[in-house]
Task: inverse folding
């Protein structure tokens, strides 16, 4: 049976899922946790603690006050040392709450037991409110505050919940391990989200290169008691990048195309990552706010790779230490995220935040860009663009700063997946210029709106 | 080797496709046709093929080193491809210095003046050939008979007309196709290349093998060659059905002349062709019709190179209108 | 005569005559009446269309000048490349006083050479400041400093700016710069500023735009302004102010006495002081009438 996938475009980078079979291990506590105030889309959270305050694991330390913002909870117990600017994964310094860690005392109302709780007592609105209170944001990398996705109105409703277990980026395996190790909790999370979104149908999308995850999902779904998993199915998809992007995912799974500038809710869908799903289960059923996540540490030159359950605020170099490794000698790039869409960072002295799904160490041989040549007009970039754009044209227009033409050529539709730059035989930096065009077109559009 | 980290925007991985791989892949795809050329036209063909490639690479190298003073990209394979295709578009008896002139025009004028690789609007090999045809009409239309005296170093080549040439002259002289049929080589001979013509265009079999290799390696897509040949066949077929005495059948037209070489190797040149499959179909269909038009109605016996050059001129217009479908454009649910 | 020639000549002659008539009629009927002064003023302007006046080209500026002349006041308009010669000529033609503007010049406010601010990272991407600016702090780690990729160079219509290969910083030519402002707009970090050229071309400025705390800034660049305030205290004209961990010299008050240059602990103050002009930031021993000339000359060796 031919597996579903999206059209048009897409590429097949080598999967390099080196850590796919490594079970998740809890990472030790740091001595100091630096918890940035901005770990999500939208406005930074506002601190509600000050220097000298004692905090426990799960204490609210910053509140999201704007409409698009999120709460932040302490991941450690100890004393607040200061609120200061700290270098983070963006390469810039941003404000963070720095806590001196003392022991591991949790807030009393958090249920730390292991038993599965499958009664969903709250009503949909209350579930959404609790998502907000517990600081749940999208753990797929975009860190969008989840409760906003569930805010619906009469003319904007959903009929399908899609759980994104695709993890199409090479090297990353955090979601894969979650699906294998926390299957039952994830399925309960799906039920909770279905109730919150008032939908009858949920599809868990997994790429076919994770057959064990597909199998375990389908087995557990089949073994559900009293039809508790009615309406939920696990769907394998053909392997192609960038299938995990929500536009491409909805096209592949349901053949629905989100129009330009619109959201999944406009085609009747809510999309959430499997990690977010687990966080929602823990928040709703165990009163556990979001303060830890699974992070993959990997790279071809590492002797061992790993998946760790990390408290946010932990310095990233503890991941390497936990593997018992040093930075490999000819590491050329450290990537926050996957090699296709991740961000190159200049130091591992940064705190792990809600948005860091993996750290990839790329060697000289893999990472260095080739010298660009002339565009040979082979049109391969057009063929692989999943949004139906013309990267060669956008690059040329952006280079010449013809931003009006960029806007007309729909540069804002670009999802920055990198398929074009990946494919180009002349090694042209297509996406760099396309981003230049996007940034300037957005600036022009903002200026227009203000007038 | 420094121990500093590199920072750049994503993506941080690169596929292994490169310009060199594509260009040298085309050269490999042209190997069967080269062997066929050597088999049928002997030592002269070896000379033309080798000199064509050397001249083109040399012209590009000299222009880049002394005139434009850019980084030297003469060895990336694209000049080799142009040289090989230019060689394939001339008869084996061509004097070396005429080939040199053709190379200078092909690379120096048709490619480098526009900015080098990928910037030329017209197919450089075809420009070179068109220039040579206009400048050296006698030598460019003197076709050695295949296999005769191919390896005989001392003897002169014996020349004859190509099937298309025979057809054109014969029809002008008032004969019918049926009367001329005796002079044409059989279909099998035309297929393997046992006929007069430019050294690379004679063997449809060798070109097909090369084309299959290009498709397998995903260097080209099937749209242009198939639609070009199809539209040529349909166009000539319509005329043949109406008046078989005056017009030859479509199979003859596909196998004769440069249609096969043009469809598989010249029209598929990425720099001068359209950027979307939609555009490529428009390009190929129009090219096939033009080729047929020139062959049937024009005064030249062969129209393939001109049809491609004319369509090259239309490519910017085609690209402007044949855009890919944007994701979510008509909001299908 | 051959009838073909006759017919050809007749046909072409008729076409030519008909075209001439059509062109004449169209030129007359669709003629746009324009104030003839606009053409004159356009002729007086340099014709570089650089946009330094704030208008879209010299003709647009001429239209603005004529419009302002109808309001009896052209003092607000100025053509930087043309300078006072052009403005007084235009003033004479229009019969009004052109405003007095001091000649200005673009000034690069960063001292982060390869030596002072060594690279800690390698930027692997297209050589465009606008792109790498959004990526990260810059190869030396300073989020405000010059990226050295040269976006300011191709926009200059007067060939007045180039990137010095030794230092990695832009250099602006005293003679060619017309203060049109193109490089100021091109720099994504607003490092280049238009400042008055100064009497006898003497001017002093803070060679840094870093707003980080002193200790942090010094980690990345040895020539950073650390906002210690010594220059503020030293200045006899009170021309220097401190804001956001950065000092700034007000060009209106500065007399180019050079006292602040000597006290700056990181050599973050640059100047063109001597009558014999060198490149930006160089000080010549000749022609300087300052008492601390020897000390300044030593500093010049270090800054370079």
Result:
């Amino acid at each position: 049976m031919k597996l579903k996938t999206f059209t048009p475009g897409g590429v097949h980078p080598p999967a390099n899922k080196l850590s796919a079979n490594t079970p998740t291990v809890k990472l030790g506590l740091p001595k100091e946790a630096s918890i940035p105030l901005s770990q999500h889309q939208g406005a930074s959270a506002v601190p509600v603690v000050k220097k000298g305050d004692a905090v426990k694991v799960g204490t609210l330390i910053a509140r999201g006050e704007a409409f698009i913002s999120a709460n932040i909870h302490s991941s450690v117990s100890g004393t607040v040392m200061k609120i200061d600017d700290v270098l983070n994964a963006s390469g810039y310094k941003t404000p963070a709450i720095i806590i001196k860690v003392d022991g591991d005392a949790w807030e009393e109302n958090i249920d730390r037991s292991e038993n599965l709780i499958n009664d969903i007592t709250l009503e949909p609105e209350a579930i959404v409110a609790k998502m907000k209170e517990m600081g749940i944001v999208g753990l797929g990398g975009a860190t969008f505050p989840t409760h906003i996705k569930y805010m619906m109105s009469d003319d904007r409703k959903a009929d399908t919940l899609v759980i994104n277990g695709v993890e199409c980026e090479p090297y990353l395996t955090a979601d894969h391990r979650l699906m294998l190790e926390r299957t039952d909790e994830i399925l309960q999370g799906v039920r909770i989200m279905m109730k919150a979104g008032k939908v009858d149908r949920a599809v868990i999308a997994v790429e076919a290169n994770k057959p064990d995850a597909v199998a375990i999902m389908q087995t557990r779904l089949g073994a559900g008691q009293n039809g508790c998993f009615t309406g939920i199915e696990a769907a394998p998809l053909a392997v192609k990048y960038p299938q995990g992007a929500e536009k491409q995912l909805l096209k592949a799974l349901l053949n629905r195309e989100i129009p330009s500038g619109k959201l999944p809710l406009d085609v009747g869908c809510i999309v959430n990552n499997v990690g977010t799903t687990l966080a929602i289960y823990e928040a709703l059923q165990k009163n556990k706010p979001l303060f830890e996540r699974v992070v993959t540490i990997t790279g071809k030159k590492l002797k061992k790779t790993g998946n760790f359950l990390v408290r946010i605020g932990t310095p990233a170099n503890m991941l390497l230490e936990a593997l018992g490794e040093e930075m490999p000698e000819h590491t050329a790039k450290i990537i926050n995220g996957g090699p296709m869409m991740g961000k190159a960072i200049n130091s591992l002295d940064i705190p792990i935040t809600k948005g860091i799904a993996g750290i990839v160490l790329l060697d000289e041989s893999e990472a260095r860009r080739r010298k660009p040549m002339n565009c040979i007009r082979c049109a391969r970039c057009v063929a692989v663009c999943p949004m139906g754009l013309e990267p060669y044209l956008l690059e040329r227009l952006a280079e010449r700063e013809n931003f009006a033409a960029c806007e007309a050529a729909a540069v804002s539709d670009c999802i920055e997946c990198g398929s074009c730059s990946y494919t180009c035989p002349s090694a042209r930096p297509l996406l760099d210029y396309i981003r230049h065009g996007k940034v300037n077109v957005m600036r022009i559009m903002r200026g227009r709106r203000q007038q | 080797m420094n121990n500093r980290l590199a920072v750049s925007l994503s993506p941080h991985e690169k596929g292994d496709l490169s310009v060199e791989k594509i260009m040298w892949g085309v050269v490999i795809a042209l190997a069967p046709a080269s062997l066929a050329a050597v088999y049928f036209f002997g030592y002269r063909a070896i000379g033309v093929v080798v000199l064509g490639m050397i001249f083109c690479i040399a012209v590009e190298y000299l222009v880049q080193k002394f005139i434009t003073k850019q980084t030297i990209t003469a060895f990336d394979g694209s000049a080799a491809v142009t040289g090989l295709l230019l060689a394939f578009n001339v008869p084996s008896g061509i004097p070396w210095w005429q080939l040199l002139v053709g190379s200078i025009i092909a690379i120096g004028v048709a490619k480098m003046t526009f900015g080098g690789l990928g910037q030329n609007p017209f197919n450089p090999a075809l420009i070179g050939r068109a220039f040579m045809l206009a400048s050296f009409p006698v030598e460019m239309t003197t076709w050695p008979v295949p296999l005769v005296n191919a390896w005989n170093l001392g003897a002169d080549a014996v020349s004859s007309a190509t099937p298309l040439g025979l057809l054109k002259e014969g029809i002008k002289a008032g004969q019918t196709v049926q009367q001329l049929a005796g002079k044409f080589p059989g279909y099998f001979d035309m297929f393997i290349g046992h006929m007069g013509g430019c050294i690379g265009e004679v063997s449809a079999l060798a070109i097909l093998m090369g084309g299959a290799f290009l498709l397998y390696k995903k260097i080209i897509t099937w749209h242009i060659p198939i639609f070009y040949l199809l539209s040529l066949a349909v166009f000539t077929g319509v005329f043949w059905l109406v008046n078989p005495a005056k017009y030859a059948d479509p199979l003859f037209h596909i196998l004769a002349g440069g249609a096969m070489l043009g469809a598989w190797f010249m029209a598929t040149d990425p720099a001068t062709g359209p950027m979307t499959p939609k555009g490529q179909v428009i390009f190929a269909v129009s090219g096939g019709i033009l080729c047929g038009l020139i062959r049937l109605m024009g005064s030249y016996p062969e129209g393939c190179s001109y049809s491609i050059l004319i369509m090259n001129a239309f490519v910017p217009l085609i690209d402007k209108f044949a855009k890919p479908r944007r994701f979510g454009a008509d909001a299908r649910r | 005569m051959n009838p073909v020639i006759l017919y050809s000549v007749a046909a072409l002659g008729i076409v030519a005559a008909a075209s001439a008539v059509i062109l004449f009629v169209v030129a007359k009927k669709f003629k746009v009446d324009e104030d003839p002064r606009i053409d004159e003023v356009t002729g007086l302007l340099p014709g570089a269309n650089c946009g330094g006046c704030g208008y879209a080209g010299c003709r647009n500026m001429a239209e603005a000048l004529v419009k302002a002349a109808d309001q009896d006041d052209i003092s607000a308009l100025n053509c930087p490349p043309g300078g006072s010669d052009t403005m007084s000529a235009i003033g004479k033609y229009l019969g009004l006083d052109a405003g007095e503007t001091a000649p200005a010049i673009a000034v690069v406010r960063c001292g982060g050479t390869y030596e002072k601010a060594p690279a800690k990272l390698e930027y692997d991407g297209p050589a465009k400041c606008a792109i790498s600016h959004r990526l990260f702090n810059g190869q030396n780690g300073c989020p405000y400093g010059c990226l050295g990729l040269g976006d300011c160079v191709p926009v200059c219509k007067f060939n007045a700016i180039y990137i010095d290969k030794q230092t990695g910083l832009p250099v602006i030519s005293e003679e060619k710069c017309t203060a049109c402002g193109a490089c100021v707009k091109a720099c994504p970090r607003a490092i280049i500023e238009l400042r008055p050229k100064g009497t006898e071309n003497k001017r002093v400025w803070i060679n840094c735009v870093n707003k980080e705390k002193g200790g942090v800034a010094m980690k990345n660049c040895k020539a950073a302004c650390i906002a210690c305030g010594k220059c503020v205290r030293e200045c006899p004209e009170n021309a220097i102010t401190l804001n956001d961990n950065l000092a700034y010299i007000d060009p209106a008050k500065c007399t180019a006495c050079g006292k602040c240059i000597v006290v700056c602990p990181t050599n973050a103050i640059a100047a063109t002081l001597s009558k014999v002009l060198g490149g930006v930031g160089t000080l010549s021993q000749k022609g300087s009438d300052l008492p601390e000339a020897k000390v300044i000359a030593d500093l010049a060796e270090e800054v370079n």
